[in-house]
Amino acid sequence: MVGEYVCTLSEELQKRAKEEINEDPERRAEDIQHIRDWLKHQPHIKARTDDWTILRFLRGCKFSLQRTKEKLDMFYTCKSLCPEWYKNRDPQDKKMRAILELGTCLPLPGYDSRGRKVVLTRWGEFDPSHIGLSDLMKVSLAVLDVWMEEDEQASVTAMVMVEDCGGLTFSHLATFTPTFAKKASTIIQEGYPMRPKGLNYINTPAAFDTVFNIFKTFMKEKMKRRTHFHGSDLDSLHKEVPKEVLPVEYGGTNGTIEDIKKYWLQRVDARRDWLIEDEQYGVDESKRPGKAKTSADLFGIEGSFRKLNVD
Predict the structure, then answer these.
(1) Under a CB-based contact definition with an 8 Å cutoff, are residues 102 and 93 in contact?
(2) Domains and CATH numbers, the chain
(3) What is the pLDDT of residues 102-150, one digit of tens each?
(4) Best exposed site among 155, 247, 285, 303 by fewest CB in 10 Å?
(5) What's the confidence (pLDDT) of residue 251?
(6) Backbone angles phi, psi at 158, to 5 degrees
(7) What is residue 280's three-state secondary structure?
């Protein structure tokens, strides 16, 4: 068996996995093998086929075999059709390093009261005249990929996001184009198995509504319902995300941003070989059965904006 899975979950989390995401320990190995066999018969997909990678996707799709196949295909298709986010992810690269040191994407230590991982993003930390949004996304996705590879609990309990928009200027906001919004929304919602349960915006500038309305066009309905705006009100944020899991800079008791930045620098460095090796996985559209997919198929926005204008 390839990279055989060994469960590290507590009994309580195993129970939750059964109740919330339909995981049957007696059928788990069979389900993993079913997906592995399916991947072997997809001439266009070159995928990781270890137990853990497949299991993460099964969990993210609540053990629906059909949805797992669709999500895996989408994940590897996005990787290949979006090379600017998935190629050259060496954390020792000078540019990558500079962005990593900003700490724009930080999964926080521990979990919230429901056992979920909280991921903090700090969009106002980069200088748009020196750093492009594609480079920022490349680094953010590298951190998220390392986190998901190393965190079994979150594969069951899901995640919550805190988006700090403090420091965002018009120059920042101008880089968040409809094309970027569509691409990011497609990859995160359709490609990743991480099940976001809450989206919390804090420190939003006046012009933020314009940008959010673009993103909202591409958001699933359930994600719109899980979105909360807190302005600069930390008390409001703490009602959704407890102080115990937030850094001191956000009125919390969970270490400092500096400590958390250092931790993720170390983790990404430790996974350098894994990140570099990961670049080989993706799709070869010339081998896809039926019609090849293009960036326009996945990330095209024309139809969405006809709809937006009517609204």
Answers:
(1) no
(2) 88-270 (3.40.525.10)
(3) 999 999 999 999 999 999 999 899 999 899 899 999 999 999 999 999 9
(4) 303
(5) 97
(6) 75, -165
(7) coil
